[in-house]
Every structure is written in structure tokens, then in C-alpha cells.
Structure prediction request, 446 residues.
Amino acid sequence: MSVTPSAPQARTPWRAVIGGSIGNLVEWFDWFVYASFATYFASAFFPKGNDTAQLLNTAGIFAVGFFMRPVGGWLLGRFADRRGRKAALTLTVTLMSASALLIAIAPTYDQVGYFGAGVLLVARLLQGLSVGGEYAASATYLTEASQPGRRGFVSSFQYVSMTAGQLIGLGLLIVLQRTMSDDSLHSYGWRIPFIFGALAAAVVFWLRRNLLETEVYEEAGAQRETERGSIAELLRHRKEAALVIALTMGGTVAYYTYTTYLTKYLSNTAGLSKSDASLVSFCALFVFMLLQPLAGALSDRIGRRPLLITFGVGSMLATVPIMTALSHTDSFGGALLLSLAALVVVTGYTSINAVVKAELFPTHVRALGVALPYAIANALFGGTAEYVALWFKNSGAESGFYWYVSGCAAVSLIVYLTMRETRDTSLTKAPADEPTTSEQAARTPV
Prediction:
């Protein structure tokens, strides 16, 4: 179907990129600083004792937040399909602002006992609810608002913005480590990033209120009114939903291993100082961020499956040697090179996983179809990655975690090898009615 926007209302790709991804930056800043600053606030909410035990407690609450993501994926995915992508994006950043503020003002164990940990838990549940909907709303918005032949490139900015949020969080951590004493960071300095996140979310709320809805969604607005965003309709696409879970499994475990867990791993296992470990993560993530659009654009030329397969093979074969080498490195340069090698492999998944999932579903159930299965996979595998890693370490068998990550990648690789290519899928038709490539090219960009 041709789409010819009027001049005043024409969507430009960069407006869609900025509008759809800026909230991701704040969402993932707040999400990531929890993991990055956990080494400083773990002792604030739990009794003093074994450091690894305290980290296990905070990692457990981190994982619980992931188990709210399926709830957020269901509620906010349904909301995005029924009320629009713009409305969902605005709501998710509001929830994230509230959760960041709760953590910033949470009382400590010395002040109120375990009540402080309870406030932390509530905040993490709100974060999980928010991120569960944010991923799908952002993925569908960026995918629907881009040209057919550039969907991989445009949607890759979801991970650019997510990584930028992580970089800002890590950058703030590095600045605070160099300007505050260790005692001050443990005492009150860890609250600073959460205050910053709450304020930044208020700015993004205003920006997102001025977004335009995608024309793909508006075209389908009058169709299947009662079916939009319903579980019953999602079950009609249960094969695609199961595919999302399976293709996410290996990617989410690898992603959280080399991003949120990496700083702790370099500090607790490799023996690098906290400041050096943070700087390694910052540099590696910066390069990783720059790789996303390049890989996304490549997928527009050669297809999505080749990149996913490359990730699956690389993660399956390289995880054990990379993690083993990282555990023995004692230099900044060595840790950085190994971290970069791992993140280059992970790029094959992160750069295109959002667009692949969005291309699997029709418009009226796209947000829910992306959100709920992806959130389930993240709850089971991504959110537990750090906890599983620390459990193996605490049990004296840390290398078992390396094989766990490799095994998850192997399962996803089977899916990548057998799934259909989604690059030429029409977003305005159901999968069974997909047009030819020439028909795709004839569509007017939104």
C-alpha cells in the first residue's frame, strides 16, 4: 500500500531515530547504573559480611526486576497496540523516572533494617515493568518509521541509545570514582546517578509528548479493533512468539555477560581495580555502540540471518576461551582487547534483534508480539545471567558459567539456521501476504 505523507507531516528518518530512541537512553541509564553501582550500595541495604553474598542479594533483586518484564511486556505491549506507540513510549519513561527516584531516596539497612531493601525491590519491579514495555514500543516505532530498505540501519539505533545510556552511567561512575573517596561513594555517592536519571526522564517525557505516531500504525488503526494487542491474537502467531524466545536466549545471556556483569567480573575475578574495570567497560562499550549502525546497515544488504548465524557460531566457540583469558588478565590493554572481541561477536545479535522480531508480526499485534516473548526470554536468561555467574563463582566453579553462556548460544544458533529471512517482510501485511522485493521497493518512505 502506498503512503504519501503531506509535506508538513512528513516523517524524517532522523526525527524517528531521535524520538524513538532518546527515551531508551534514559531507560537504560537507570537500568544499567543499578548494576554498575551495585558494588557501592550493596552494603547499604544488607548486613555487613561477605562481599560476594551482598552482591548476590543485589543481583537477586536485579533478577527479580527481569521477572516483571513479562508483565510489562504484556500490559504495555497491549497498550502500544491499542493506544499507539507514542503513548506507550511516554508511559514507560514516566515509570522509569519514578523508579529511579525511589532508589535515590531509599533508606539504608542501618536506618530501617530490611525495609530499605524492600523499597529497592519495589523500584526494581517498576523498572522491570517499564523496560518490559519500552523495548517493544521502541523497536516497533523505529521499525515502522523507517524506509523498507533501511529498517536494519534505523532500528539498530535502539542499541546505540541503550549503549549510550550505559556509557553515560559508566562515565558518571568513573568521574565519581576519581572525585570522591571510596567511603563517600559507599555512603551517599551511589545515589547521585539515580537522581540524575529521574531528572533526565522528566526531560524525555516532554520530548516524547511531541512525537508523531507512525503511519503504519495509523493505517491499521481502524482494522481489527477488538483484536489489537490481545493474547488471543498473539496465540494465532505462537510460532513467531516461540521463535522470539528461542532466538533471544543466546543473545541476551551474552549481552548481559559482557555489559552489566563485565565490570564486576574484571574486578572480582581478574583482580583489576574498580576504576580500571569501569574504564575497560566504558571503552569497549563505546566501540560497541559505533558498530551497531554499521552492522544494521549490513543486514539491509545481505539479510538478517547471516549476522545472527555469525553471532551464534562466534559466541558458542569463543565464550570459553575469552572468559578464561579475561580471568587471568592483569593489564588494562589485555582486558580491553578481549572485551572488544566479545562485543564484536555480540553485535551480530544486538544490531538487528529488534527489527527481526518486529518483522515477524503484523501491525495489530506487533508490539505485544515483540514485548511479551522477548521479556519472557530476558526474565529466564538475561536477568539471571549475573546471578548465575555469581552463583558459579561462589560455588568455586566459575568456569561452569562460561559453558552455560556457550550452551545458550548453541541453542539459539539452531534457530538462526532454520528460521526464515525477514528482511523483505512488509510491515503493512501479515506474513502470509508478504509482497515481492520489487513491491517492497515501491513503498513510499514514512
